[in-house]
Amino acid sequence: MIWLASALAVVLLATAFGSWLSWTATRLDNLHHRVELARESVRRRLLERSGWTLEIAAAGVLDDAEAVVLADAAARARAVDDGFEAAESDLSSALRAVFDDAGGTGRLREMDADLLDKLEASSHRVELARRFHNDLVASARHLRGRLRVRWFHLTGHAGPLDTIDFDDVAPDTFGPGR
Amino acid sequence: MKVGLVCPYSLDVPGGVQNHIKDLAEELITRGHQVSVLAPAEDTDELPDFVVAAGRAVPVPYNGAVGRVMFGPIASSRVRRWLAEGHFDVVHIHEPGAPSLGLLALGAADVPVVATFHIANPRSRVMSAAAGLLRPRLERIAARIAVSEYARETLVQHIGGEPVVIPNGLYVDRFRLAEPRPEWQGEQTIAFVGRLDDPRKGLALLLDAFASIERPGLRLLVVGGGDIEQARERLPEQVRAQVCFLGPVNDVEKARALASADVYVAPNTGGESFGIVLVEAMAAGAAVLASDLPAFRRVLDDARLGATFRSKDVEDLAAVLTRLLDDEPLRHQLSAAASVEVNRYDWSQVATEIERVYETVVDL
């Protein structure tokens, strides 16, 4: 009788442990999937930002030098794929160079407030998307660091988890959000 | 956009989180969104029509105070029904770590979840323990918002990641345009807002400091619920007539009380993560004097927007208060700087930032 009870207990424990592992693996898998989606969302937001920057450069509102600086930085940011962070940081500093003195922002607001609103909003959305992506990466990394994940190779073939880090500080003159 | 807001605490109890949610709901509705707020409340309670009552709340000690929260199978099924009927694009949960509706909604929601963290308590072991337990749940959040730098640090310490800071909002003009009430004013007037019997609000400190400043022309306005008789007894006989207890007044009267004050004093001893009432006083044009809690120092931008004293130190409070009352140029300098800064907290800005968060997660 005792051997039957012990066998039953062992089977029950093993089942519970197994479902705990499988639950953890599902959790990790979900996180990996969401990190992918978040990464795509960051890239999409970046394309929006450089797109509006190009439109503003072409709108004939800014002076020629400002327009060239913006167009150059935006075009470079759109051209690179690997190591896009450096190019996007450059675009952020180009935007600040043009819009940080209230002059550029003020002139653009007078000429084409709608276009400026679009750029403002997309600058802030870039920051949000990047932060939300990195939040997910932090959660996934934390889970990957657990003993059960490491010992039982629950990570599978998923690649490395990198945060996205670049300078996304919007010009001071750009309304809410900092 | 269809937005579902989840409030962890009873709406009939005043509090920073509840007010924030009510204002946010109204502001989002004004902007053309469809909003439903799920909150602990009885069906029979008188509620704004955007609120769905989840049932009776139970008082539970949480984060060092007693919160009126909801959990259990009935709450659970109400949450699920609200989610199913709402067809929300985004669900915005406040204080998701609180043992209440937010946590239940987090478990049941299948749309993107935005969460706002109001609590700040970086050194709390309890919060660390809770964070470990809640981690699988908190992983489901798509976007995390902290209401202050201080709350953000707490969050990073316990969970990690890069939450965004979006402060609590207020309608600045409701305070800026509030009319002073001459009958509440003395030669000079001090104001206090907070529950009289909550030691963390620090009224006793202010009363002791006030009694030690012997100035017959000075008035003290005390706004907030609690046992007025007990509070009055703490004062020496000769100054009792100078202190005016207004009780728990409505928002309009509170704004007028703040507008009547030369100095607003926040003698809180702890438990504050943001200090919206400081911003309200700043908007009403009062010079602010607050204890040097980290959350308050952040709101006051160290000492640029208001003066501080050493927390729990009655003598220091009395000294700084006297100095501030005697130095009119300093008061003006502080309130002038503050009146610019408060626009940062106006709903016109704060709601735009929150909308952008919604747009970002819906896009995922």
Description of the structure:
The complex is a heterodimer of chains A (178) and B (364). By secondary structure, chain A is mainly α. Chain A is built from five helices and no strands. The model of chain A has no long low-confidence stretch (mean pLDDT 89). Chain B has 364 residues and is of the alpha/beta class. Chain B folds into two domains: 2-169 and 346-362, Rossmann fold (3-Layer(aba) Sandwich), CATH 3.40.50.2000; 172-344, Rossmann fold (3-Layer(aba) Sandwich). Helix content of chain B is 41%, strand content 19%. In chain B, the strands form three sheets. A seven-stranded parallel beta sheet of chain B has the order 3-2-1-6-7-8-9, with helices on both faces. Chain B has a six-stranded parallel beta sheet with strand order 12-11-10-13-14-15, with helices on both faces. The longest helix of chain B has 16 residues, at 347-362. Chains A and B meet through helix 1 and helix 4 of A and helix 4 and helix 14 of B.
What share of residues are in beta strands of chain A? under 5%
Major beta-sheet overview of chain A: none
Alpha carbon gap, first and last residue of chain A: 69 Å
Which structural class should the secondary elements of chain A be placed in?
A: mainly alpha
Name the CATH class of the largest domain in chain B.
Alpha Beta
The oligomeric state is heterodimer
Structural class of chain B: alpha/beta
- Unreliable stretches of chain B, pLDDT < 50, 5 or more residues? none
Indicate the proportion of strand residues of chain B.
15-25%
Which chain pair shows the most residues in contact?
A: A-B, 29 and 26 residues
What is the helix tally of chain A?
5
Instruction: Indicate how many domains the architecture of chain A comprises.
Output: 1
Order of helices and strands of chain A: HHHHH
CATH superfamily annotation of the largest domain in chain B: Glycogen Phosphorylase B
Total E-strand runs of chain B: 15
The end-to-end span of chain B amounts to 15 Å
Number of helices of chain B: 14
